[in-house]
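lol forgot to send this yesterday, sorry. struct tokens for the thing we talked abt
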């Protein structure tokens, strides 16, 4: 049986991997059901592209691209990710992982084996609203990943998607306080919600935009 973990490939991006030209590998399936998620086809769809096809694509882009972004869906759901990353690294490409952090053991393995170069970690909402927004009970898994990355001083960023009806300034401030308490010293990125057609159907675009002046200082906060 052919292993087809990827739903799609974006052949070029200058935005998704800081300071690098990259491709995006979109992994099918996710272990969250975030209310604002716009990747319905990826979250509920099946993989269509094999590892071999993806690696052949990268071979054709040697000298043109610097790296690969592993996104989705959720790439760490894929049990063959370690072996796949080894093959990508053998082609001399850097790897950025976009993740919700719910697979701390996989992330620890990738970091400790030097199989990834950068991580974008989604801090969805504070713990008390995690289940309501993500439909996952496992904030503790995310927390373990966040603490591990801070302790390792691994190059990573924390980011939150902001829909004004789903997360307010006071909740973002609780995230900022938590990051400071844990010792996070990187940039905290806020991404405005841009889509209406989500995995739960159409939801309104941001109706109550978060005012930047309401946010705490002490951490570098950047809107994308």
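and heres what i got for the seq, position by position
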């Amino acid at each position: 049986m052919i292993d087809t973990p990827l739903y799609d490939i974006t052949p070029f991006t200058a935005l998704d991997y800081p300071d690098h030209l990259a491709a995006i590998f979109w992994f099918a399936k996710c272990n969250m059901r975030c209310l604002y998620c716009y990747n319905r086809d990826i979250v509920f769809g099946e993989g269509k592209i094999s590892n071999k096809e993806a690696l052949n694509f990268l071979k054709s882009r040697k000298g043109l691209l610097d790296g690969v972004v592993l996104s989705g869906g959720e790439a760490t759901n894929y049990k063959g990710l370690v072996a796949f990353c080894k093959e990508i690294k053998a082609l001399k490409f850097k790897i950025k992982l976009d993740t919700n952090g719910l697979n701390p053991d996989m992330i620890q393995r990738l970091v400790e084996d030097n199989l990834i170069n950068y991580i974008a970690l989604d801090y969805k909402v504070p713990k008390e609203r995690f289940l309501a927004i993500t439909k996952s009970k496992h904030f503790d898994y995310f927390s373990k990943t966040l603490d591990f990355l801070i302790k390792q001083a691994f190059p990573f960023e924390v980011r939150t998607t902001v829909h004004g009806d789903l997360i307010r300034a006071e909740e973002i401030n609780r995230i900022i306080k938590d990051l400071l308490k844990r010792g996070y010293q990187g940039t905290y990125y806020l991404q405005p919600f841009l889509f209406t057609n989500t995995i739960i159907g159409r939801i309104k675009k941001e109706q109550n935009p978060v005012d930047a002046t309401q946010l705490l200082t002490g951490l570098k906060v950047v809107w994308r």
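The longest helix spans residues 139-152. anyway ping me if u want another try
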